[in-house]
Specification:
This protein has 212 residues and is an alpha/beta fold. The protein has a single domain, classed as Rossmann fold. It is built from 9 helices and 6 strands; from the N terminus they run βαβαβαβααβααβαα. A 6-stranded parallel β-sheet has the order 3-2-1-4-5-6, sandwiched between helices. Strand 2, helix 2 and strand 3 form a beta-alpha-beta unit. The chain is globular and about 50 Å long. The chain starts with a strand and ends in a 5-residue tail after the last helix.
Length: 212
């Protein structure tokens, strides 16, 4: 079945680090598509400085030249808090069980997965693909997440495409040392960000006076 990556986040703003991770995972697992899903009202972020409309527009500019990448604005078009479980349920309803969904996240995010809304249900709708950055120490998991890993982990890529959901896989990829926080700080102080994100995104930020 088709293997579709799900890359959610605030993307505030999207940058080369996001694009590199998405492409590296897609290459490693031979994904058919990667969907970027900008969060409208993320539960774990106290304050997002730029409206979802702008963040979505920047994603469209950043991925326009890559046919593997697409954007899905279902969270922006849905009222209320942007919970991942609701997004996965919506995607499963629209794509059916002939598509394997791969929820992409860093291993540093996975450590706090047990604080997510209805986290125990995520694997009912998708696989989880963890990114382990080389050279980064692996932190200890809470007991219930250790159990989750033990019960669902696979290193076999073919298992991901034989099952529409339910597995956890980890990929070690090289990472670009770029953060949205760093970019916002550069922009606030009038420094160039052209080496940190696509030129089209930098122009959009300038035109709309964002992060100033």
């Amino acid at each position: 079945m088709r293997l579709v990556g799900i890359f959610g986040g605030t993307f505030n703003p999207i940058h080369y680090g996001h694009l590199h991770m998405a492409q590296a995972l897609a290459d490693a697992l031979t994904m058919d598509e990667v969907k970027f899903i900008p969060s409208a009202n993320p539960p774990h972020k106290d304050h997002v400085t730029v409206a979802a409309e702008h963040r979505a527009a920047m994603i469209k500019l950043a991925i326009a030249k890559n046919p593997l990448f697409s954007i899905d604005e279902l969270e922006r078009n849905r009222a209320g808090v942007s919970y991942t479980i609701d997004t996965l349920i919506s995607l499963r309803q629209s794509l059916g069980k002939e598509t394997a969904l791969c929820l992409m996240m860093g291993s540093d995010v996975f450590i706090n997965l047990d604080t997510w809304h209805r986290w125990q249900e995520l694997l009912d709708y998708a696989h989880i693909i963890l990114v382990q950055r080389p050279g980064k120490p692996q932190q200890a998991l809470p007991n219930q997440l250790q159990t989750l890993m033990h019960d669902h982990y696979t290193e076999n890529r073919s298992e991901l495409s034989r099952n529409h959901a339910g597995l956890i896989n980890m990929q070690a990829i090289s990472a670009l040392d770029i953060s949205a926080t760093q970019i916002r700080a550069h922009l606030k102080h009038g420094l160039s960000v052209k080496h940190l994100l696509p030129e089209e995104v930098a122009i959009y930020i300038q035109q709309h006076h964002l992060y100033q």
